[in-house]
Structure formats: structure tokens, C-alpha cells
């Protein structure tokens, strides 16, 4: 019995990989993607109201901090609220952008955003806690006030009776 071997066809350019010469895979259609909403502004329409609320909360926290323990506490409380405001706003903007570009990016970019912002928050808080700065307790209370306030207003925004359909 004679064995027959197939000899590969001679190519003009031997440096080109075989996968690059295949033409059958190039004609496959792209997967169907869901249509994007007509008006993508709904993803960030709550930010102006939440920013105004955060500014008011920052002023209240600074006032309470000043009345309780003076200028360092006022600065600490205001910094805590500002830290939360920047963190939450950054998350909102990254997720809204990812949703407009390609909804499949929401999870990976959201996770990356959370890892980055909580790493930075941990470094900042570790630095502040290890220092002897008199406003460090007020900074912690400012973070707590910012988280509770932002979360409550965002829940109210979503659940309010007059929201758009």
C-alpha cells in the first residue's frame, strides 16, 4: 500500500502565516448589537442635582466641623464629602460612557473604576489615619455623610413620582 502525502501549496511569500492567508473567516457577519437609546443623556441627568446636593452637604459638613472642633475639622469634613462626590461622579461618568460606546464594556470598566477608586481611597485614608492631623476624625465623618447623603438622594431620584418614562 502506498502512502500519499499532500504537499502544501507553494506560496510566493513564506513569511506570511497561514492564518493570514485564510479567506473563509473574513466573510463572517458581525454579531447583531442592540440599538442604542435615542437620547443617552438620561444616564447622567441626575448629576447636576446631585452635585448641588453635594455642595450643600459639603457646606453643612464644614460648618458642623468648624463649630465642633475648629478649622481642621471643617477642612476634614469638607474633604470627606468632596472625596465621596468625586468618587461617585467618576463612577457615573465612566459607566455612562461605557454604556454609550458598547454596553459590554460596563462590567469591565466598572470593575476597573471601583478597583482604582477604592485603592486610592484606601491609600488616602491610611495616610490620614497614620498622621496626627486633628481633622482626621472629621474626614471620616464627612465620608460617611457623603455616602449616606449621595445614596439617599440617588434613591430618591430613581423612585420619585414624576420621573420620565
Automatic annotation (TrEMBL):
Secretion signal, residue range per the UniProt entry: none
Compositionally biased region (Basic and acidic residues): 20-30
Transmembrane feature ranges: 47-68, 74-98, 105-127, 139-159
Annotated stretches, region: Disordered: 1-35
Keyword annotations of the record: Membrane, Transmembrane, Transmembrane helix
Name assigned to this protein: ATP synthase protein I
Organism annotation: Pseudosporangium ferrugineum
Taxonomic placement: Bacteria, Bacillati, Actinomycetota, Actinomycetes, Micromonosporales
Amino acid at each position: 500500500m502506498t502512502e500519499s502525502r499532500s504537499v502544501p501549496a507553494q506560496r510566493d511569500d513564506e513569511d506570511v502565516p497561514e492564518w493570514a492567508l485564510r479567506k473563509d473567516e473574513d466573510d463572517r457577519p458581525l454579531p447583531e448589537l442592540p440599538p442604542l437609546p435615542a437620547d443617552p443623556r438620561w444616564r447622567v441627568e441626575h448629576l447636576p442635582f446631585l452635585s448641588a446636593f453635594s455642595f450643600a452637604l459639603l457646606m453643612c459638613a464644614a460648618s458642623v466641623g468648624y463649630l465642633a472642633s475648629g478649622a481642621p475639622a471643617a477642612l476634614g469634613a469638607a474633604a470627606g464629602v468632596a472625596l465621596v462626590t468625586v468618587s461617585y461622579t467618576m463612577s457615573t461618568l465612566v459607566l455612562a460612557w461605557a454604556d454609550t460606546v458598547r454596553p459590554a464594556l460596563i462590567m469591565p470598566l466598572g470593575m476597573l473604576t471601583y478597583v482604582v477608586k477604592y485603592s486610592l481611597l484606601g491609600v488616602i485614608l491610611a495616610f490620614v489615619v497614620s498622621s496626627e492631623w486633628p481633622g482626621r476624625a472629621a474626614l471620616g465623618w464627612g465620608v460617611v455623610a457623603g455616602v449616606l447623603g449621595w445614596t439617599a438622594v440617588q434613591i430618591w431620584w430613581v423612585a420619585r413620582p414624576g420621573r420620565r418614562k
